[in-house]
Design goal:
2 domains; 42% helix; Aminopeptidase; binds zinc ion; 437 residues; alpha/beta; six-stranded mixed sheet; elongated
Length: 437
Amino acid sequence: MRVDPDDFVVVSHQDVTPSLSHSSPRYLAEINDAIERISDKLWAVNRKIHDNPELGYEEFIAHETLTTFMKSIDGWKVTPSAYGLKTAWVAVWDSGKKGPAISFNCEMDALEGIGHACGHNLIATASVSGALATAEVMKGNRLAGKVVLFGTPAEEGGGGKIKLLQAGAYKDHKVDLNLISHPGITRNHALTRTSAYMELRVEYFGREAHAAASPWLGINALDALITAYNGLSVLRQQTMPGDVIQGNITDGGSRPNIIHAYAAGNFVVRANTQARLDELVVKVRRCFEAGATATGATLKLAPGMAYADHVPNRPLGASYMRYFNALVSPSSPSQMIPADQDLDEMLGRSGASTDQGDVSYAMPSLSPGFAIVPGPQGNGPHSPDFTYASGTRDAFERALRVGKALAGTAMDVLTVDGLLEDVKRAWEDSIIGLSTP
Ligand SMILES: [Zn+2]
Ligand SMILES: [Zn+2]
């Protein structure tokens, strides 16, 4: 897919007044100003993170860069190395008046060997700019409430947000909702639904014997794993759309002339919702048990990391769409987020998984996807091509546009009567709906 870079208009400080007049959302011009004023500083932060990729829980440079930057902004209270995690951090701006608590999550980690191939530097840019603009506009309009920005480590399989949830970070700050975003190369969308996933480490313990002289004395652990693998292959015919079962064998015995006493593998199970994942994992477990029953080997099954699906929130999505589309040139309709939320949700359906899903089960969450211009190969996230694409000035400006729309969403929650209640009601309905079999 080719996106024309000119198909995107950054609304700069100067052109705001004529183009953002009557029909623009109420706080757009103020938000735009607040972000444009600091865009050079944000570009330096974005570059620093992108050019110094770090793995999960080792985001030391990103942590230092972001906390130093947040400390330099008036009125923000910054806690580095928060909740027992060296690279987690929290920054709070409080109006001093009781009101809604809007939170943002800021990701920082990169991928082994290929750098910022998931564009988490852009997520950081969007969340930091969104949080700063929200506080700035709240201050200018004397609105009650507070803004909390969480530095969330290790999204790539490390579950940093789950650790923060378990440590009570979001509860401590009594946040009402959470905002984040994710870059990609497909259409812009407001409503994101990711897959629930669970990792399983599988081990079988058997007994060695001479494979030719006395095989009957042995218990073949590899046979147990192969039996389970074949059982899973059969199960795959009876799965639901969205169910995915994948695995690899890490240990398949030592030599062919010994009955294999040990075999092991890693498996990943995914489904559209957490409730469906729970059902599917029961069936997957039975396949592993079947391998043990058939061979007499002992099974050890250890659940690894697990992420819930991301549950979209329509009232938050509607606000985001309105602000985002106001920042798209009318001559670029393909950049617009559809007003039809069914269509929007279809565009935002992803087989991938994120720990923001767990956040979405704890509180209303908005995680819109935004398109950046792909690299020369046209490849999406988790490829070196996307690492290149995530480092461009154009991608940075698209992340700022997302930051502006996230701040707009926050302003709606803070100022539109009954919206926060609608957001919470929609969240309750969707979580209850998902957990009903
Ligand atoms: Zn990723
Ligand atoms: Zn990512």
